[in-house]
Amino acid sequence: MSLDSLAPGGREVLRDAKRVVVKVGSSSLTSIKGGISEEAVLSLVEALAGRRNAGTEVILVSSGAIAAGLAPLGLARRPRDLATQQAAASVGQGRLMSRYTQAFSVHGITVSQVLLTADDLVRRTQHTNAFRALDRLLNLGVVPIVNENDTVATHEIRFGDNDRLAALVAHLVRADALLLLSDVDSVYDGPPKDGAQRIAEVRHADDLAGVVVGSAGKAGVGTGGMATKVQAASIAATSGIPALVTSTARAQEALRGDDVGTWFAVQGERKPIRLLWLAHLATSRGEIVLDAGAVRAVTRNHRSLLPAGITGVRGDFESGDPVDLVSPDGEPVARGLVNYSAHELPKMLGRSTKELAQELGHEYEREVVHVDDLVVL
């Protein structure tokens, strides 16, 4: 084990974690020709079951539903259109869960299926319910197996890949660590086939400066690749949860805290989950143009956005939608959940909340974007 891994906040955090989220990708579990790989599932489950039976609460975020549905539907590769992806997910999810149920039962462990959409982790009532359900499952000794609800997700509200879903789930369940598994054993400073060097640890964003990481592989069954794993690990680490990126084959070593993979040390404090979503995943539905004073209030003084500081509105959005807050020269400076629709805001521009309340009613006294629903970019 390296000296770095023994430093405060090193791999022993993963070794000693009481609650850990593990994400595995489609390419590690399935192939187009063979569907779900029995050997791959059994190997992964053996590592996770050993940790669970040793007392650690484990949440598995598993891709593979769409990939598992390809062969039964006679599809040669992952479809591009959403409707066929949804059909494949609907067929494949049951097959995937059946394999996991059988594999974990050998170790005396019960599993559950948890399908989530972006709304489940963003809207307050829904993410409270999601946390309560997952927390209770863990307390009962169950291993929840989480996937995006591909069958009902739309392009506008989906996570895009399960790496980022795993980072948000880790925050939702207040995990001690996040483990991201793929086909590659570490992040490298270039193509491994060209003799690139492993990056053992990332403590600051500068540690990855100039590093180009790959996208989805050639197998055609996944959506992520190393780039999304680095992004997900960074999302977790910059908001209080350490993460490790390594290969599925080294899952057991990783869970022991061995010096494998690339360790992303904590670089910031934990944040509310909706703010993580806003910063990293939300699709903006429009823009609100701020004057210079409002830009300072929002970005430097951490204040709510009031109508007096707004000079323009672009796009078509409803109350509760994510919007970008832009400077006078059009540069996005923040993103937040807006409290008014694009049709309501134009009559409010540049006016005080007191004036608006007197003329339009007390419901217009609220902020355009509350500071608790706002992230500075």
Supply the helix-strand structural class: alpha/beta
Tally the helices: 13
Strand content range: 15-25%
Unreliable stretches, pLDDT < 50, 5 or more residues? 1-8, 216-223
**How far apart are the first and last residues' alpha carbons, in Å?**
37 Å
Bin the helical content. Answer: 25-40%
Number of strands: 17
SSE order, one letter for each helix or strand: HEHEEHEHHEHHEHEEEEHEHEHEHEEEHE
Q: Specify Rg, calculated over alpha carbons.
A: 22 Å
Q: Please give the largest β-sheet.
A: 8 strands, mixed
Structure overview:
The chain has 377 residues and is of the alpha/beta class. The chain is 34% helix and 19% strand. It has 13 helices and 17 strands. It has helices spanning 12-16, 26-29, 38-53, 65-70, 82-105, 118-122, 124-139, 162-172, 226-237, 251-256, 273-280, 292-299, 353-360; strands at residues 19-24, 30-31, 35-36, 57-62, 111-116, 143-148, 177-182, 187-188, 198-199, 201-202, 243-247, 262-264, 286-290, 310-315, 322-326, 332-337, 374-376. Strands 5-6-4-1-7-11-12-10 form an eight-stranded mixed β-sheet, with helices on both faces. Strands 14-13-15-16-17 form a five-stranded mixed β-sheet. It has a two-stranded antiparallel sheet with strand order 2-3. Strand 15 (322-326) and strand 16 (332-337) form a beta hairpin. The longest helix is centred in the first third of the chain and has 24 residues, at 82-105. Mean pLDDT is 87; it is low at 1-8 and 216-223.
